[in-house]
């Protein structure tokens, strides 16, 4: 019998030692400078401005009735939309990978449209079917369902595009192995396929939630931005900016930033888990 | 009679994968389906497992007609070339899968998994993920997983094909010993004639969708039914219009009755073996002998020799080429 | 080879197919096609009207300049960062690779606010200093470029990193053993192997950059004929009851992004070679 072979731990292990050469070190320096000027320093400025006036000012800004309503609406709607995506995303990916029918290539393009379409145009697009001139008589303008539909539109690609490659890579062998061991199709799906897709679904859900929470452009024309009704967090921040209330704008922005950071951390953890599974 | 394959045909589009295949695979034996790649042997195995449906014909397992039975109801163990491990489950969970599907009591599952992992020498890896195992270990795990459900038959599709030569040889010996312990009717697909000759009790040679011959390794080697079987089971050369194995060609340095004469054109030494190519009027003939023998004959390029079949040699008349190409 | 048993479709498969087609039809296909028909309600008039308006032309030009600048910056930066992340080890690498994704999940309004807080001419951290040496960022083109570059930052990197990881360093080492210096290895070996990933990333970045709205709205000041971009024109025209103009501008932008997607989907199979 062969000696005990250990898997491939080298793939996971990362040395903290630097392997930079003088040239690549300079490159990293320049890149970090630009990244700091463009992203890190401005985002830090948001956090600093948010807490500049002290905890009370921050808390007052965030718990202001209108702001709190906006945050609640944004978060709840984003959660709802993400739940819909968790169901629809894998189904769409499944049909795109496993089904075969004429016109499937068109569906592939439809999935990407929400990602590439300018958000303001996305709003206009939805307005044309679900606005006052709706050919099917559904008018949701200035109502809460408008926020839901807009989020649904802009978050469409995330789970689909995360799940699709995993589904493509999935060995048919594995499903056949499950069948030969006596598993029904449903059991095979639940116990073999779904667990393989879970990391991709989770990662897509995190992105979809983050995108929903931070959405702005598609709502401008669609939701009417009615306080306490259809006003989302981004709109609330914008009106603070326009009224030159930087501290409260930054306070609310900081809340969104924290949500984004949490999502980033979740994604990082998921990716590491997947790397270990191999 | 364990597995009965009768009149099975299978086409993929225009490609004929199996053509009127009739085979009986005996109970409790280790049977090899041997043949070149694309010859239809994997398709036959997958049809037996229910992973593929025959266009026509019947499959019966232990006397029960299984032709219309889906894979999950056939109670066969199947081992795939690329292991088909459940990546998200530990080694123990993989092995337990079939038993859990069958809703066996927890304690029984645990005991059986434990026993099987010991059998395949993976006892200490029960809680690892498959990604932490080597290829050979993964395949042993896949085997334990297939055996866990106590299948009526165990089917292995090129089980060692993805492994390197050394591990392959070890697993081959190990499979033979395992089968002697477990005695489950086993069918494995291979394109490696050495593997089939070494491991199997019975060999089914399949080529271009047809069964060429069925028999024990000795029968196949000593009494090949035709050119193809003769050629596929070992090296051959043509002498006096018959196929013969190079080591069955007798080489003499003086004229002999009914011997074919020719000139040694090339001598190659490989370890203890010497391969000499002799150019005759009827074309080149390859011969193989031991080094000592070659030295005693004084064999070297340019020497004239006389070639004849050794007494008791296996030969087959050269057929006019039946295959297209 | 066909796997008959497993390729067999049950009623569930058809049901799912129907569900997906209906969902995508009502959410994407029908609304998008309505924008096209609304634009051409009165023929090509609305499109030609658009180009007759000098303010719209200025806005389109500004959008193009900002998008192209942002894409160039992000491509150079993206390829460089990808190389550093894949080929080198350094402290803080994991944090950097996670932070790179941040712009994808930050609200565009927050992006705009963040840039204003640092580069704002009056109270920004760096803004007043920059204005003293004559550089105006906010309410000017540099701010629009920065906002656009911010939101599209990760797109090239997300495409290039996996491909770069996949191709490994063996080819580069082979080239090194054949006497190629670092620059030659980069140009002759590394760059060609990630070429399609870069193209894919650039196309996605371009689509995203042309369509940026929220962040640009905050930093640009939205001054007609000066710092108003195409997406801002759509909003302004719609709110001023010039629906035709809004639809026509939206159609132009949608055309470009759909063209980008089609290009991407044509490139995609080749990138698997």
From TrEMBL, chain A:
Membrane topology summary: Multi-pass membrane protein
Principal location: membrane
Cross-referenced CDD domains: TM_PBP2 (cd06261)
Compartments, as annotated in UniProt: Membrane
Keywords in alphabetical order: Membrane, Sulfate transport, Transmembrane, Transmembrane helix, Transport
GO cellular component terms, semicolon-separated: plasma membrane
Transmembrane portions of the chain: 20-50, 70-97, 109-130, 145-163, 192-213, 249-270
Every ABC transmembrane type-1 domain range: 71-267
GO molecular function: ABC-type sulfate transporter activity
Pfam families in the record: BPD_transp_1
Coiled coil: none
PANTHER family: SULFATE TRANSPORT SYSTEM PERMEASE PROTEIN, SULFATE TRANSPORT SYSTEM PERMEASE PROTEIN CYST
Reported function: Part of the ABC transporter complex (TC 3.A.1.6.1) involved in sulfate/thiosulfate import.
Name of the protein: Sulfate transport system permease protein CysT
Annotated source species: Nocardioides lianchengensis
Lineage: Bacteria, Bacillati, Actinomycetota, Actinomycetes, Propionibacteriales
From TrEMBL, chain B:
GO (cellular component) term, any one: ATP-binding cassette (ABC) transporter complex
Keywords annotated in UniProt: ATP-binding, Nucleotide-binding, Sulfate transport, Translocase, Transport
GO molecular function, one term: ATP binding
SUPFAM superfamilies: MOP-like (SSF50331), P-loop containing nucleoside triphosphate hydrolases (SSF52540)
Enzyme nomenclature, EC number: 7.6.2.9
Domain of life: Bacteria
Residue ranges of every copy of the ABC transporter domain listed in the record: 3-233
InterPro entries registered for this protein in UniProt: AAA+_ATPase, ABC_SmlMolc_Importer, ABC_transporter-like_ATP-bd, ABC_transporter-like_CS, Mo/tungstate-bd_C_term_dom, P-loop_NTPase, Sulph_transpt1, Transp-assoc_OB_typ1
PANTHER family: SPERMIDINE/PUTRESCINE IMPORT ATP-BINDING PROTEIN POTA (PTHR42781), SPERMIDINE_PUTRESCINE IMPORT ATP-BINDING PROTEIN POTA (PTHR42781:SF4)
NCBIfam families according to UniProt: 3a0106s01 (TIGR00968)
Full protein name: ABC-type quaternary amine transporter
Source species: Nocardioides lianchengensis
From TrEMBL, chain C:
Lineage top rank: taxon: Bacteria
Keyword Iron applies: no
Subunit structure, interactors included: The complex is composed of two ATP-binding proteins (CysA), two transmembrane proteins (CysT and CysW) and a solute-binding protein (CysP).
PROSITE patterns found in the cross-reference section: ABC_TM1
UniProt topology in membrane: Multi-pass membrane protein
Localisation per UniProt entry: Membrane
Key words of the record: Membrane, Sulfate transport, Transmembrane, Transmembrane helix, Transport
Primary subcellular site in the record, as a coarse category: membrane
Described function: Part of the ABC transporter complex CysAWTP (TC 3.A.1.6.1) involved in sulfate/thiosulfate import. Probably responsible for the translocation of the substrate across the membrane.
The keyword Transport appears for this protein: yes
Identification of the protein by name: Sulfate transport system permease protein
Molecular function GO terms recorded: ABC-type sulfate transporter activity
Gene Ontology CC terms: plasma membrane
């Amino acid at each position: 019998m062969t000696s005990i072979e250990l898997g491939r731990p080298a793939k996971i292990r990362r040395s903290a030692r630097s392997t930079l050469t003088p040239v690549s070190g300079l490159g990293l320096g320049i890149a970090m400078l630009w990244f700091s000027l463009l992203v890190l320093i401005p985002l830090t400025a948001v956090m600093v401005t948010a807490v500049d006036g002290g905890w009370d000012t921050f808390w007052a800004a965030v718990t202001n009735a209108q702001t709190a309503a906006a945050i609640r609406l944004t978060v709840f709607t984003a959660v709802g939309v993400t739940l819909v995506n968790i169901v629809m995303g894998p189904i769409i990916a499944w049909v795109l990978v496993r089904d075969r029918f004429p016109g499937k290539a068109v569906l592939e393009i439809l999935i990407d449209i929400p990602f590439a379409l300018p958000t303001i145009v996305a709003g206009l697009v939805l307005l044309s079917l679900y606005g006052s001139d709706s050919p099917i008589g559904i008018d949701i303008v200035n109502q809460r369902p408008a926020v839901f539909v807009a989020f649904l539109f802009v978050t469409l690609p995330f789970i689909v595009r995360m799940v699709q490659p995993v589904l493509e890579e999935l060995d048919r062998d594995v499903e056949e192995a499950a069948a030969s061991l006596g598993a029904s199709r449903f059991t095979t799906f639940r116990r073999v396929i779904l667990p393989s897709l879970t990391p991709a679904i989770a990662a897509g859900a995190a992105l979809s939630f983050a995108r929903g929470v931070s959405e702005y452009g598609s709502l401008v024309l669609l939701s009417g931005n009615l306080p306490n009704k259809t006003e989302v967090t981004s709109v609330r921040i914008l009106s603070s900016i326009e009224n030159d209330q930087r501290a409260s704008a930054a306070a609310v922005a900081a809340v969104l930033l924290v949500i984004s950071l949490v999502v980033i951390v979740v994604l990082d953890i998921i990716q590491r888990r997947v790397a270990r599974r191999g | 009679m364990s597995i009965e394959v009768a009149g099975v045909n299978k086409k993929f589009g225009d490609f004929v994968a199996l053509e009127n295949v009739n085979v009986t695979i005996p109970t409790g034996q280790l049977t090899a389906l041997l043949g070149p790649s694309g010859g239809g042997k994997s398709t036959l195995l997958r049809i037996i497992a229910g992973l593929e449906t025959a266009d026509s014909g019947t499959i019966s397992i232990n006397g029960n007609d299984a032709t219309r039975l889906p894979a999950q109801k056939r109670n066969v163990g199947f081992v795939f070339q690329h292991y088909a491990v459940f990546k998200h489950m530990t080694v123990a969970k993989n092995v337990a899968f079939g038993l859990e599907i069958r809703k066996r009591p927890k304690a029984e599952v645990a005991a059986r998994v434990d026993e099987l992992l010991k059998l395949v020498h993976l006892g200490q890896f029960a809680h690892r993920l498959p990604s932490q195992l080597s290829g050979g270990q993964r395949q042993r795990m896949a085997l334990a997983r297939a055996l866990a459900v106590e299948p009526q038959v165990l089917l292995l599709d090129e089980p060692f094909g993805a492994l390197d030569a050394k591990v392959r040889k070890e697993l081959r010996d190990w499979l033979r010993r395992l089968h002697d312990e477990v005695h489950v009717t086993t069918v494995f697909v291979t394109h490696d004639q050495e593997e089939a000759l070494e491991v199997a009790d019975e060999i089914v040679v399949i080529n271009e969708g047809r069964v060429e011959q069925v028999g024990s390794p000795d029968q196949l080697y000593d009494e090949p039914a035709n050119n193809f079987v003769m050629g596929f089971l070992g090296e051959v050369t043509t002498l006096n219009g018959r196929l013969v194995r190079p080591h069955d060609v007798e080489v003499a340095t003086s004229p002999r009755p009914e011997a074919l004469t020719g000139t040694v054109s090339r001598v190659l030494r490989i370890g203890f073996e010497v391969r000499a190519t002799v150019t005759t009027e009827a074309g080149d003939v390859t011969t193989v002998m031991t080094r000592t023998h070659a030295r005693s004959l004084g064999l070297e390029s340019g020497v004239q020799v006389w070639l004849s079949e050794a007494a008791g040699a296996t030969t087959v008349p050269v057929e006019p080429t039946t295959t297209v190409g | 080879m066909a796997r008959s048993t497993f390729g067999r479709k049950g009623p569930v498969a058809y049901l799912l197919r129907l569900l997906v087609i209906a969902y995508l039809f009502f959410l994407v296909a029908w609304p998008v096609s309505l924008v096209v028909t609304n634009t051409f309600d009165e023929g090509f008039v609305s499109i030609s009207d658009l180009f007759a308006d000098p303010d719209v032309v200025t806005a389109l030009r500004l959008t193009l300049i900002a998008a192209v600048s942002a894409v160039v910056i992000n491509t150079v930066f993206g390829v460089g960062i990808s190389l550093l992340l894949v080929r080198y080890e350094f402290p803080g690498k994991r944090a950097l690779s996670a932070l790179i994704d941040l712009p994808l999940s930050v609200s565009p309004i927050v992006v705009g606010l963040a840039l204003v807080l640092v580069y704002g001419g009056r109270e920004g951290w760096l803004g007043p200093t920059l204005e003293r040496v004559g550089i105006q960022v906010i309410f000017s083109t540099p701010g629009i470029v920065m906002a656009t570059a911010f939101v599209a930052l990760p797109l090239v990197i997300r495409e290039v990193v996996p491909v770069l990881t996949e191709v490994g360093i063996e080819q580069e080492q082979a080239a090194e053993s054949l006497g190629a210096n670092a620059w030659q290895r980069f140009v002759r070996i590394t760059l060609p192997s990630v070429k399609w990933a870069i193209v894919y990333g650039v196309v996605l970045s371009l689509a995203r950059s042309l369509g940026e709205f929220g962040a640009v709205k905050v930093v640009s000041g939205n001054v007609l004929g000066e710092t108003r971009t195409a997406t801002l024109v759509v909003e302004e025209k719609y709110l001023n009851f010039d629906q035709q103009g809004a639809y026509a501008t939206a159609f132009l932008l949608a055309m470009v992004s759909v063209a980008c997607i089609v290009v991407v989907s044509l490139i995609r199979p080749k990138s698997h070679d």
